[in-house]
């Protein structure tokens, strides 16, 4: 038998696990949802159900989408020879919001770290190399963080790409990137991309 | 006195033995006396935490909160730098890392290094010349850091890359590209570290030359040669096999040692007498302070814990004269008031009671 009060507590506990929410804000959010059951909570629950059923990683770039290939990888117009390597899907979304970049992406899903047991295979690096020739990539743009792990990853990728004779650049230094692009405004992202230089 | 770098106010709350403490200062040297366990070193430790790092005791965060309450602690200070005043606040809630606020804005710990230059000498450093190289390396890196706050970032970066490399070595990883990516970063920050260490020694050397001081000249050098970025990269690659057998990185700037010679006697510091070794350390701290004053126009804050006790009357008088000539706010501790008689009205005197109570005179 399900008890409404326990269900609501369980919902609060689940919500509190979301990034940026603690128990207090989770209680506020749930209370708000319950008060707006029909106009907000039900559509939200249905939408979440649909996304949970269909969301998946794009098999090519690692972006999150509802289809096997994401919209960017499915679009021929985005195959302009530029490939931007980012750490996280949130970086990709931030670049897309700024609208400045017209090429394709490759999402690593993290950075190389022996201490955290994250190696090249966990990061889709072999898949990155496999994309270069078939997609006619001319330039790989590294948009990785200035941290030790970010730079280790950048140098590792650079070495894998070198034999392919492809131009390698990185976003302008001094711009905090790597899981942090999300916090930058469009102007800063645009400036960092325009000022990219040979890696 | 005005102008120089100095704390004009320090307030502690639930920090170590101090439940609530406050001192008002004017930039003169500060002489603190009181019985064993009164809380003198704790006070100096609080000041040392106003520079980046873990302070003069290298304490773990959880040791700083006053026991038995362990409520979390707070250090608030007003720092005078030239004509400007900055409010610095450090605090930590139980189980959380410390936060820094400068002029009421959140700031990273490393920002403190650009604001407050603080050098210290504590009794545990008395054995610096005879104990393991690690202590001397840390001393050397603090010298370098005092001249170049960015030295801290290079050291952290080098250590992080080395920990990663050591993990690969222990895991018997063989992917050469992964090693090269890490070794490249170790070589880059390692070369910076080595250059800044040498640069610091050079500046200390210049500050000792022809200085009016009663303290002995210490001739400093590095135990291993500077390979530069390229040389370091080559070394790491060449040593990979041996390192893998050992499960760690055997060579590099993290193994460097600082060599000190008691100048006028041409005697290694480790073979010098206890008093001579102490005098060498004081000499180096004073030279560091003079070099910084030449660079920045203001002498750094000095924390000299129990410095007076080990010196004979002549050297003690010389120390006070040199500190006053430097114009440094030097915080000194001792168990007896007469140790500071020679300082007289040139300093501010603080009395601490066995129960931690504080009184300021003059
Ligand atoms: N976290 C803590 N909470 C409460 N008391 C502490 C804490 N840490 C250290 N103490 C106490 O602080 C007291 C004062 O220590 P401190 O080292 O400052 O003494 P001191 O005045 O320098 O003495 P001495 O002359 O022996 O060097 C000690 O008795 C110690 O037990
Ligand atoms: Mg003490
Ligand atoms: Zn895709």
SSE inventory with pairings:
The complex is a heterodimer of chains A (199) and B (362).
Chain A: H1 4-15, H2 23-35, H3 37-54, E1 56-57, E2 64-65, H4 71-74, E3 82-86, H5 89-98, E4 104-107, H6 125-132, E5 139-143, H7 148-161, E6 167-170, H8 186-194, E7 197-198
Parallel strand pairs in A: 3-4, 3-5, 5-6
Antiparallel strand pairs in A: 1-2, 6-7
Chain B: E1 6-15, E2 18-24, E3 30-33, H1 40-48, E4 73-81, E5 84-92, E6 99-102, E7 105-107, H2 111-115, E8 118-121, H3 133-147, H4 151-170, H5 176-208, E9 218-222, H6 228-238, H7 240-246, E10 258-262, E11 267-268, H8 274-296, E12 301-304, H9 313-326, E13 330-334, E14 348-352, E15 358-361
Parallel strand pairs in B: 3-13, 3-14, 8-12, 12-13
Antiparallel strand pairs in B: 1-2, 1-4, 4-5, 5-6, 6-7, 9-10, 10-11, 14-15
Helix pairs in contact in B: 3-5, 4-5, 4-7, 5-6, 5-8
The complex binds adenosine-5'-triphosphate (ATP), magnesium ion and zinc ion.
Magnesium ion binds next to helix 1 of chain B.
Protein name (chain A): Recombination protein RecR
Family (chain A): Belongs to the RecR family.
Pfam family, one (chain A): Toprim_4
Provide structural commentary:
- The complex is a heterodimer of chains A (199) and B (362).
- Chain A folds into 2 domains: 53 residues, Helicase, Ruva Protein, domain 3 (Orthogonal Bundle), CATH 1.10.8; 103 residues, Dna Topoisomerase Vi A Subunit, Chain: A, domain 2.
- Chain A is 44% helix and 12% strand.
- Chain A contains 8 helices and 7 strands; from the N terminus they run αααββαβαβαβαβαβ.
- In chain A, the strands form 2 sheets. Chain A has a 5-stranded mixed beta sheet with strand order 4-3-5-6-7.
- The longest helix of chain A is centred in the first third of the chain and has 18 residues.
- The mean pLDDT of chain A is 90.
- Chain B is of the alpha/beta class and 362 residues long.
- Chain B contains 9 helices and 15 strands.
- In chain B, strand 14 and strand 15 form a beta hairpin.
- In chain B, helix 3 packs across helix 5 and helix 4 runs antiparallel to helix 5.
- At the A-B interface, helix 7 of A face helix 4 and helix 5 of B.
- Chain B: The RecF protein is involved in DNA metabolism; it is required for DNA replication and normal SOS inducibility. RecF binds preferentially to single-stranded, linear DNA. It also seems to bind ATP.
- Chain B: Belongs to the RecF family.
- Chain B: It is found in: Cytoplasm.
């Amino acid at each position: 038998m399900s008890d409404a009060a326990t269900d609501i507590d369980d919902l609060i506990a689940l919500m509190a696990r979301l990034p940026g929410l603690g128990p207090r804000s989770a209680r506020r959010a749930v209370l708000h949802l319950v008060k707006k059951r029909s106009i907000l909570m039900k559509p939200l629950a249905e939408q979440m159900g649909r996304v949970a059923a269909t969301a998946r990683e794009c098999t090519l770039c690692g972006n999150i989408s509802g289809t096997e290939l994401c919209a960017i990888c499915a679009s021929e117009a985005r195959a302009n020879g530029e490939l931007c390597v980012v750490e996280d899907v949130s970086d990709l979304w931030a670049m897309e919001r700024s609208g400045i970049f017209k090429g394709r992406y490759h999402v690593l899903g993290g950075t190389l770290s022996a201490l955290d047991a994250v190696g090249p295979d966990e990061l889709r690096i072999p898949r990155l190399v496999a994309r270069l020739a078939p997609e006619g990539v001319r330039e790989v743009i590294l948009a990785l963080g200035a941290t030790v792990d970010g730079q280790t990853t950048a140098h590792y990728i650079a070495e894998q790409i070198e034999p392919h004779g492809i131009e390698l650049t990185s976003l302008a230094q001094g711009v905090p990137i790597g899981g942090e692009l999300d916090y930058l405004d469009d102007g800063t992202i645009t400036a960092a991309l325009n000022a990219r230089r040979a890696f | 006195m005005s102008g120089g770098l100095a704390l004009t106010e320090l307030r502690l709350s639930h920090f170590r033995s101090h439940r609530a403490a406050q001192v008002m200062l004017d930039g003169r040297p500060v002489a603190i006396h009181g019985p064993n366990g009164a809380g003198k070193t704790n006070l100096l430790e609080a000041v040392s935490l106003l520079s980046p790092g873990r302070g003069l005791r290298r304490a773990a965060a959880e040791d700083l909160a006053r026991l038995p309450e362990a409520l979390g602690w707070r250090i608030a200070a007003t720092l005078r730098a030239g004509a400007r005043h900055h409010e610095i606040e450090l605090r930590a809630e139980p189980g959380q890392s410390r936060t820094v606020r400068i002029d009421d804005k959140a700031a990273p710990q490393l920002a403190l290094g650009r604001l407050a230059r603080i050098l210290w000498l504590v009794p545990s450093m008395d054995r610096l010349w005879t104990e393991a190289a690690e202590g001397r390396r840390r001393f050397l890196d603090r010298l370098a850091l005092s001249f170049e706050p960015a030295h801290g970032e290079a050291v952290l970066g080098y250590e992080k890359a080395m920990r990663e490399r050591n993990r690969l070595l222990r895991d018997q990883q063989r992917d050469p590209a992964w090693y090269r990516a890490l070794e490249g970063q170790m070589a880059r920050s390692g070369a910076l570290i080595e250059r800044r260490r040498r640069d610091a020694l050079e500046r200390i050397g210049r500050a000792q030359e022809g200085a009016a001081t009663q303290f002995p000249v210490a001739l400093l050098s590095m135990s291993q040669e500077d390979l530069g970025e390229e040389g370091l990269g080559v070394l790491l690659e060449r040593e990979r096999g041996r390192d893998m057998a050992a499960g760690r990185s055997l060579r590099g700037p993290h193994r460097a040692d600082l060599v000190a010679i008691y100048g006028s006697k041409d005697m290694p510091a480790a073979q010098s007498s206890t008093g001579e070794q102490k005098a060498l350390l004081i000499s180096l701290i004073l030279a560091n302070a003079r070099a910084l004053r030449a660079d920045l126009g203001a002498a750094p804050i000095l924390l000299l814990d129990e410095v007076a006790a080990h010196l004979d009357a002549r050297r003690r008088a010389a120390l006070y004269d040199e500190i006053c000539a430097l114009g440094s706010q030097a915080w000194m501790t001792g168990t007896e008031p007469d140790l500071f008689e020679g300082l007289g009205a040139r300093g501010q005197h603080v009395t601490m009671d066995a129960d931690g109570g504080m009184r300021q005179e003059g």
